[in-house]
User: Fold this.
Amino acid sequence: MMPERNAFAMGGALLSRFLARSRTAFGTTASRSPASETRCPDAMPAWRAIFELRRPIPRRIRLLSAWLGFGAFLLVWSIASHYFALKGDGILFPSPARVIGAAADYAGYGPRTEQRIAAARESAALAGATLHQSEAEIRAAARADLGTLWLDVKSSFLRVTVAFLLAAALGIPAGILMGSFRIFESLLQPLTEFIRYVPVPALVPVLMLFFGIGETSKVMLIFAGTFFQLALMVAGEIRRVPIDLLQVCATLGGTRLEAIRRVLLPAALPGIFDTLRICNGWAWTWVIVAEIVAADSGLGFRIVKYQRFLQTDKIFLYLIVLGLIGLLLDYFFRQVNRTFFHWTDTTKR
Assistant:
C-alpha cells in the first residue's frame, strides 16, 4: 500500500505543478505577489486610484475637478490682468471684474451705464434743468446692446449650421466611399489631403470672386474648413471596423451594399457621430474668419469692431459667449450619442 500511496502522491504533485504552470502561462493564476497586490487599483488608496490610467472616477470628483480647472483659469487671468495694469496697459488685458461689468451693462446696470447716468445728472445740475433722459431711458438704451448680442449669436449660428450640415451631407458619403473601397480611396484621398493643407483664410479672395461678398461666401468658407477633415475622419472610422465582420457577411451571402448598410455603417456610426461633434467645433473656429469679410452682424464681426475701439472687455465677453456656445453644443452631441448609441462608449476615445 505504501508504494501505491507514494505513487499517487507523486502523481498528484506532478498534476498540481502542471496545472499551476498552465495557469501561469495563460495568466489565470489566482495567486499574486506582494508587489502585484500593491499595484492593484482596488487595493490602492482613494487619492492614488483616481490617477490610474483610464480608471473611472466618481461624478462628484469630476464636477469638483471641472470647477477647479475653471478656478485656476480665473486665477491666472486675474494675475495676468493685474500685471498689465501695473505696466499701465490695463486696457489691453481686462480683468474678470471688468468683463463682468461689461456683461452687467447689457442688463442696464453696469459701470458704463452708471457713469452715463451720473454724467447726465451732473450736466443737468450744472445747467439748472431737468434730465433730458430719465434713468430708465438710459438703462433701456444700454439694454439695446443685449439685442445686438442676440442678433450676432443668431447670425453666426445660422452660418455655422448651414455650412456644417452641407459639409456633413457631402463629407459622410465621401468618407464612406473612401473607407469602403480602395479605388475611391486612391481617387479621392490624395486630393482631399492636398486641399486640407491649404490654409482656409487663403481661400477668402477666391471665394469672394466666385460667390461675392454675401452670405454664400461666408458659408462656403466655413464649409471648406470643415468638409475635408470630416471626410477623412469618417473614412478612418469606416476602416476601424474589423475585416472579420465583412468576411462573415460575405460568407452569409451578403452583397456589397448589404455589407455597407448592415455591417460598416452600424459599426462605425458611433465614431462618425463623435466625428461630427469634433468637426462642429472646428466650424465655429472658422466663423470668425468668415465674418471678417464684409459682414454686418455676427460674433466675429462684432469682435473685430470692438477691437478697433479698444473695447477689450466686450471682446472677452464675446469670447466667453463663444465658449459657452461650444460647451452647450458639445454637451448636446454627447447626450445624443449616449441616447442613440448607448451600447458603445465613445466618450473614452
In short: The chain has 14 helices and no strands. The domain at 145-348 is CATH 1.10.3720.10 (MetI-like fold).
